[in-house]
């Protein structure tokens, strides 16, 4: 099979490419990525020379470019990871989120229709369901939970999901959608909670916890997400949504304390700062469907995954030190400079 992986120079997409090349060496993998601030070609250095791998720098919104690539490669499957993915950036500047996440997805699907495709898979998020209250631990997101978004980011992802399902119903495009909970692991951009806290901890910088830090996220090791997506594209039913999550709910403050503990740093680095606007309280996935239909279960326990992740950041400092020494400094000053220190 020839598989186009969009957004493959980012966090989850790159981990998925490594998984595919290892698990399915018979497949040809084309990575299509615009290389935004979040895409990093050095992440793919170890696979660049493989004969069954090709990297193409391209914007998914570039209709002619995408058309040409399909003409050259005749892909069997497209897995769409390409997106603007950071909630805080979407609050500052929604428009690029609508452009890439909605328009870009529609361009990919139009070209898939034109050439024919075995499967178009949309990598979506649990954030499309909105949030759950902290005092109802019995509630979980299922695939039939209504979409009810909070941020420009999650709204753009929900918009894309609706379009994907509409292309299935209207044009019969063979699609699938997966909605995963928060990922962690190697190569995550240090604007996201876990790598940001690791990098700050190692530099003895304040650890900016939004509000009280009581918000709950359902953390999944990135390799488990990659395995789940791969099962869905090969065995999942067309026109279906699959939720992905491993019942691993944790409060932000507990994650940050755990990182301090693992790195031998004092919790006095923790600084409570102004909360995120519209901050979702709790995400929690019910993964029954993907478990019963496809036999998927997460394999990495959080205590092992977080240690592996911290180890990776310790062993790969040049990768993230390079990122945080550049434009990231301006980003950090803008995002965190104005936040009031609550305590
Ligand atoms: P990321 O920000 O690390 O990577 C995104 C990649 O997409 C980058 O390589 C970037 O260069 C590329 N890209 C952005 N705009 C593009 C465009 N217009 N054309 C081509 N490439 C473009 O994101 P991530 O955390 O790896 O997330 C990947 C996908 O998974 C996203 O669709 C996201 O919504 C979804 N998701 C993420 C999580 C999570 O916890 N990180 C959880 C659930 C779902
Ligand atoms: O500095 C911080 N301080 C803080 O308290 C940052 C960056 C985050 N937080 C909080 C906000 C959230 O409650 O930590 C939690 C996790 O934040 P993020 O890492 O920004 O992730 P989240 O907003 O939950 O979204 C992530 O999961 C779903 C991904 O970024 C999305 O792409 C994915 O769809």
Radius of gyration of CA atoms, rounded to a whole number: 19 Å
Strand order of the largest sheet: 3-2-1-4-5-6-11
Helix content: 40-55%
Structural class: alpha/beta
Question: What is the total tally of β strands?
Answer: 13
Question: Which parts are unreliable, with pLDDT below 50 for 5 consecutive residues or more?
Answer: none
- N-to-C series of helices and strands: EHEEHEHHEHEEHEEEHEEHEHHHH
Number of helices: 12
Outline, from the CA principal axes? globular
What does the model show?
By secondary structure, the chain is α/β, with parallel strands linked by helices. 43% of the residues lie in helices and 16% in strands. It contains twelve helices and 13 strands. The chain has a seven-stranded parallel beta sheet with strand order 3-2-1-4-5-6-11, with helices on both faces. The chain has a two-stranded parallel ribbon with strand order 7-10. The protein has a two-stranded parallel sheet with strand order 8-13. Helix 1 (11-23) links the parallel strand 1 (2-6) and strand 2 (28-33). It binds nicotinamide-adenine-dinucleotide (NAD) and thymidine-5'-diphospho-beta-D-xylose (TDX). Thymidine-5'-diphospho-beta-D-xylose is lined by residues 85-87, 125, 127, 182, 192-193, 196, 208-210, 215, 217, 252, 276.
């Amino acid at each position: 099979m020839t598989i186009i992986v969009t957004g493959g120079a980012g966090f989850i997409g790159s981990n998925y490419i490594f998984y595919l090349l290892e698990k399915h060496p018979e497949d040809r993998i084309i990575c299509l990525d615009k290389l935004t601030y979040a895409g990093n070609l050095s992440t793919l250095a170890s696979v660049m020379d493989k004969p069954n791998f090709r990297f193409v720098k391209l914007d998914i919104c570039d209709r002619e470019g995408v058309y040409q690539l399909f003409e050259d490669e005749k892909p069997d499957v497209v897995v769409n990871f390409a997106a603007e993915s950071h909630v805080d950036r979407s609050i500052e500047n929604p428009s690029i989120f609508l452009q890439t996440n909605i328009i870009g997805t529609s361009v990919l699907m139009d070209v898939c229709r034109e050439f024919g495709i075995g499967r178009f898979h949309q990598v979506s998020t649990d954030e499309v369901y909105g949030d759950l209250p902290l005092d109802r631990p019995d509630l979980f997101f299922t695939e039939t939970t209504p979409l009810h978004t909070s941020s420009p980011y999650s709204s753009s992802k929900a918009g894309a999901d609706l379009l994907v399902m509409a292309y299935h119903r209207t044009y019969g495009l063979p699609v699938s959608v997966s909605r995963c909970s928060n990922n962690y692991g190697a190569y995550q951009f240090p604007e996201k909670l876990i790598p940001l806290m690791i990098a700050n901890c190692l530099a003895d910088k304040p650890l900016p916890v939004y509000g009280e830090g009581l918000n709950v996220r359902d953390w999944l090791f990135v390799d488990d997400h990659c395995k789940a997506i791969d099962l869905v594209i090969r065995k999942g039913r067309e026109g279906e949504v699959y939720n992905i999550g491993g019942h691993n709910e944790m409060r932000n403050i507990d994650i940050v304390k755990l990182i301090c503990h693992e790195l031998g740093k004092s919790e006095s680095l923790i600084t409570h700062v102004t909360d995120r606007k519209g901050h979702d309280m709790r995400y929690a996935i019910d993964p029954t469907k993907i478990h019963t239909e496809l036999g998927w279960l997460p394999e990495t326990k959080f205590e092992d995954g977080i240690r592996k992740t911290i180890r990776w950041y310790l062993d790969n400092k040049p990768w993230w030190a390079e990122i945080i020494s550049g434009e990231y400094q301006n980003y950090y000053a803008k995002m965190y400079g104005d936040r009031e220190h609550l305590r």
